[in-house]
Amino acid sequence: MGHGARVLIERLRMRQDNIKSLGQHFLNNEEVLDETMNLSNVKPEDHVIEIGPGPGVLTERLLDTGCTLTAIELDSGACEFLRDNFPSLNLIEGDALQIKWPTANKVVANIPYQISSPLIDAITRTPSIEEVVILVQEEFAERLVVEWESDKGSLGMCTMMDWDCTFEMRVGPHCFTPSPQVHSRLVTMTRIESPENSKLAKLLIRQAFAQRRKKIRNTLSRAPKRIARVSGWHAKAYRDAMQSIDCDFFDERPEDLDLEDWLELARLLEDARAAMG
Q1: Global confidence as pTM
Q2: What span, in angstroms and rounded, lies between the C-alpha atoms of 258 and 144?
């Protein structure tokens, strides 16, 4: 029988206080942990990555499934605690945004909220990961899933090219120790096949939304900084291609465009580049 969330949290807090700079708010609610496990449907054959395990409240549940679990934790004190309480755990001490991840098919985690956006990028860049269940700040979840039209931005628009995201259980501040000042949400992500020209479309989206009050024609007149990372592209090719095409939505602002519009713009640019040789 496991220790349970509150026991694990209290044991860690007897060793050290929560580290505010790491945004440590530990989940203490067993019902939320139940729902996390239900949504993740972890099986013994899965290899799961958990990011920011802290005192191990979710770690304990994941280990009970018999899966292969790799936990990544930055806090050295929490790492020592995890090694003492879960000696069989494959634990990597380090920054999840900097280290190389093992090959895994799932991410299940109550992630540190301050690294939510770059962590989504890191997960997306790890092609073996097919399913994700994460607990994030509610405002971030709304932008990730694009729950409302007003949530439309580069985060959600880019994410939906690689993932089917779903809004799940709402989690109140009282479910954490110490209580944060925000509500949280469980979010599920299932990888989908990325559409053609999605890499170019993402660069266009990010550049346009960086100045979201300006018209597309103005924000996209210059080449995106990372254009050379897209096969076949460089700054001059982009400028030449952009000058050779016309779109009905060039005078729109980025929030007025749907995903299909961005993919169409990327297709037009690719066709123009190909025509120029």
Answers
A1: 0.92
A2: 15
* Cβ–Cβ < 8 Å for 233, 200: yes
User: What are the φ and ψ backbone dihedral angles of 181, each rounded to 5 degrees?
Assistant: -100, 10
> Is residue 50 a contact partner of residue 36, using CB atoms and an 8 Å limit?
no
Ordered by start, the domain boundaries in the chain are: 5-191, 198-276
- Residue for token pair 């939320």: 32
CB-neighbour burial class of residue 98 (10 A; exposed 0-12, middle 13-18, buried 19+) = exposed
- What confidence tier does 22 reach under pLDDT thresholds 50, 70, 90? low
CATH architecture of 198-276: Orthogonal Bundle (1.10)
Q: What is the CATH number of domain 5-191?
A: 3.40.50.150
Contact 129, 49 (CB under 8 A): yes
Six-digit token string for 40: 């993740």
Q: Which residue has the tokens 């790491």?
A: 22
Tokens of 78: 């929490």
Per-residue pLDDT tens over the stretch 54-106: 999 999 999 999 999 999 999 999 999 999 999 999 999 999 999 999 999 99
141-150 burial, b at 16+ Cβ within 10 Å, e below that, comes to bbbbbbeeee
Distance (Å, rounded) from C-alpha 33 to C-alpha 39?
A: 10
Binning pLDDT at 50, 70 and 90, where does residue 170 land? very high
Question: Quick check: 192 and 141 in contact, CB under 8 A?
Answer: no
